[in-house]
Amino acid sequence: MTQAYIYDAVRTPFGRFGGALAGVRPDDLAAHVLGEQVGRAPDLNPAAIDEVVLGNANGAGEENRNVARMATLLAGLPVELPGTTVNRLCGSSLDAAIIASRQIGAGEADVVLVGGVESMSRAPWVLPKTEKPYPAGDMTLASTTLGWRLVNKRMKPEWTVSLGEATEQLAERHGITRDRMDEFAYRSHQLTQQAWDEGFYADLTVQVPGTELTRDESVRASSTVEKLAGLKTVFRPEEQGGTVTAGNASPLNDGASAALLGSEKAAELTGLQPLARIAGRGAAANEPQFFGFAPVEAANTALRRAGITWDDVAAVELNEAFAAQSLACVDAWGIDPAIVNRHGGAIAIGHPLGASGTRILGTLARSLQASGQRWGVAAICIGVGQGLAVVLENQNA
Predict the structure, then answer these.
(1) Does the annotation mark 329 as catalytic?
(2) Interstrand relation of 5-11 and 276-285 (parallel, antiparallel or unpaired)
(3) Is residue 32 among the annotated active site residues?
């Protein structure tokens, strides 16, 4: 098998719901990061790119009709360059990278442009078609921003609880306390702010034209554990054991991310040196309501396929959908929490669903490069009970 490497990664700063990026179409966000990613490879002739693979979780609005293809055209890349869009909800862009790595491993590609996009601000309301013409009653619009909609009645009710209620159940099952959640959320904001201040994200992000956003918009550097502890729970009343708040969960966001993957030959084609080798991949699934715990087995599988153990791992990028599920995963792996999300996480950075997978993959590659450490894991939980993980080996360790 040909080895697959990550050569570079870039993303937009992530905007708040209704915030600085809300006026930008998702296909334009995606086109921008694709064009920037190609431009960062000094020797890359766009005609040498074999495929574009993008992740997107919604697909119901302006990113319809295969946003990978639309963004490729809007970016001014060759019309002969094919593109496909992947939907594995929150894991979509990490899945895009996994798919590309398999193409490279099979010898079908040398350079693949991957990434993901989501505008949760611009996600449309949808009206289902009626089963019979001329309905007499009212019809209800459904929001496609996040979570279940137009649910099949055959689904088990326990599977289709809200993401927040599912997280409450996960916290109960694994004994994750509100105090730990709020402390974890505080850490996310502090580390994200520190990483921005120290310039870690300077080379990983690119401003969106026509906007003034230069940093992730959801970061709250002034937040404290005390302030977080004072927030009301959202999905269950506190008197009924509720723990999940707007402060210890990831927000709704807009943004796009991209990465350049390739074979060893891609170094000649791009003029770049590989940052990290994709050494292992893993996917897992469990009960839909416990989606937040699925990264545990996904990462364990990826490590096994890479031929290493948790004892070898020096850095983890775990997408922080909720503090509770992140803590449950870290506890289950039995790892030092200090190696997890050293440059902040999604509670502060944001979680534009389709863009988050490539965001954590690119962050992990740059984190390993900066530290000189050898092995890292990128993992993400996915609604409806799935998880994905990738093991990276630093090529400069």
Answers:
(1) no
(2) antiparallel
(3) no
